[in-house]
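Task 17 of the worksheet. Students: predict the tertiary structure of the chain below and write it out as structure tokens. Keep your answer in the requested format; marks are given for formatting as well as content.
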Amino acid sequence: MAKTNAEKRVTLYRVVSIGLMAALVYVGNFMEIRLNNDARVHLGNSMCLLAGLLFGGVSGGLSSGIGGALYDLFNPAYVMSAPYTFFSKFSMGFVSGKLNRSGIKSEFLRTLIAAICGQLTYIILYLGKSFIEQLLLGNPIETATGVMVEKAVTSLINGTLAVIIAVPLSIAIKKALRSSGFKILLEEKKESKGYFNPVTIALTIFAIIVTAGFGIRLSAEKKIRKAEEEKEIAYQQQIDELNEKIDYLYEKLEIEENKENGTFE
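Model answer:
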């Protein structure tokens, strides 16, 4: 059945909103303060929450996931994490968007709860990934827990900053958008279906393949690290054995090494 003009209009505004918010999420990741090589405070999460709070679960989730995954794909240090980033960021935008359209009458309270829950969802998924990564690399549970706790501090800082920015900003922007064509998206209680199309199916398959590749790479790194450690141990054992033989020869030949000048007596 052909779409009506009204339905086409809604689709157009939805595509524009997803593209615009995905771009803001992408740019927000560059607005950062580096704490060390692995930890950083940035504005990407606040844009993810803003997308969900403004445009609902699916639209906000897609904006968050696409923007976050694009940042990872264009950064060699994070490229292998892009599929999981899409999933975790999508979850953040989706949860905040769905809860912000709940039945709580107070707009501020509803928006605050939605933002906190969306951010907590992402933090749990992110820390869970970090913990599993450490275990796949062969590190003990104590090390994995330590890494997770260290990252939790930065995540909580990012999360708090994201909520503080996104909640008042979303309320202010909504007032402006209600007088524009985006009003139909803001007041939409049930988002239209049809997201499971060839594009989303292809993205899902791609995410699964790359995630599997990421797991294989971690497993390979673990094997390589173990092999290198075994080589080091073997080399050290050979060195120790040679030293023992040299000491034995010195003793038999009654040769005493003068360690001060490196001569033998």
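Marker's comment: The chain has two domains: 5-195, 226-264. The CA atoms of residues 54 and 173 lie 8 Å apart.
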